[in-house]
């Protein structure tokens, strides 16, 4: 049973990578750059590099490199926190809006492809079970 679950996770990630690749190719971005942009756009409450590392489970070095490249390209800017100079907030620039729109469209299409042909009831049950599994992972 565990092999099937592992294979499921691998296949979902492979499929997501196909959708992310569309953004990478269209805008000449690395996978990490796409992930950072979409994370910031989809999670406005998290705007520190350390948040991306912690929540998105990306390697610190990948986030750092992606942030620096995105700054160079003019898609994000760094703002030092007035209260804590060690904290650097990441702010999306208007120049990233087209990339973000396209990336979010790809994410939506990916989500729709996952649940294609699955009833609303089955989808809700799947999400309920995922929440139970998440709790098992985080609370035990």
From TrEMBL:
SMART domains: HTH_MARR. Gene3D superfamilies: Winged helix-like DNA-binding domain superfamily/Winged helix DNA-binding domain. Keywords: DNA-binding, Transcription, Transcription regulation. InterPro entries: HTH_MarR-typ, WH-like_DNA-bd_sf, WH_DNA-bd_sf. Residues 1-135 form the HTH marR-type domain. Pfam families: MarR_2 (PF12802). One of its GO terms (molecular function) is DNA-binding transcription factor activity. It comes from the Bacteria. This is Transcriptional regulator SlyA.
């Amino acid at each position: 049973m565990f092999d099937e679950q592992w294979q499921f996770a691998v296949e979902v990630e492979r499929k997501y990578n196909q959708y992310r690749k569309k953004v990478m190719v269209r805008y000449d971005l690395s996978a990490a750059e796409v992930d950072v942009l979409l994370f910031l756009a989809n999670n406005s409450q998290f705007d520190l590099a350390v948040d991306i590392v912690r929540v998105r489970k990306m390697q610190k070095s990948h986030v750092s490199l992606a942030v620096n490249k995105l700054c160079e390209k003019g898609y994000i800017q760094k703002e030092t926190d007035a209260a804590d100079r060690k904290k650097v907030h990441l702010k999306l620039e208007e120049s990233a809006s087209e990339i973000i729109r396209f990336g979010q469209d790809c994410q939506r299409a990916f989500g729709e492809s996952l649940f294609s042909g699955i009833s609303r009831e089955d989808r809700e049950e799947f999400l309920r079970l995922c929440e139970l599994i998440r709790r098992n992972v985080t609370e035990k």
